[in-house]
Model the fold of this input.
Amino acid sequence: MAIFLICIKIFFARIVDVCLGAFRTVNVVKGHRFTAAIIAFIEVIIWYLVVREVLTPTYESIFIPISYASGFSIGTYLGTLLSSAFIKGYLTINVISEKITEEDVKLIKNEGFGVSILNTTDNKLLLIIEIKNKRLDHLRKLIKEMDADAFMIINETKYVNNGFIK
Done:
């Protein structure tokens, strides 16, 4: 029973530790340095306590490293989910198409997306769209309905000033 409790403690501590690590990394990328520093402090304390438990075990068991690795992998998965849920992000979408028409662009605008249009030298349209990352699936579906062969480039945007974003 004691080995089971140690494994459970390691497993859940690693989940929390790695979730915090993923969340911290996204905060660093987004430029939230102070938040990232606080998260890093908590993350390292948890990591230290878990590693101390793992490296100086009272009991020898294969379940201890399995608990450690399982907590790490699940923590990574949950950390990315939490990061995407709590941290606002923006994406720049560039769409190059021969088939998208001015009417299609009006439909995109009616769906609440701001669109800038450029004509290319080879009679294609280049659409530049800035969106909140949570709206990506909706926009991709909309574009695919208009032109299944449209070339899309999706980039994460660090900062947005002014413009039209809903």
Summary: The chain has a mean pLDDT of 85. The chain has five helices and four strands. The beta strands are 90-97, 115-119, 125-132, 151-157.
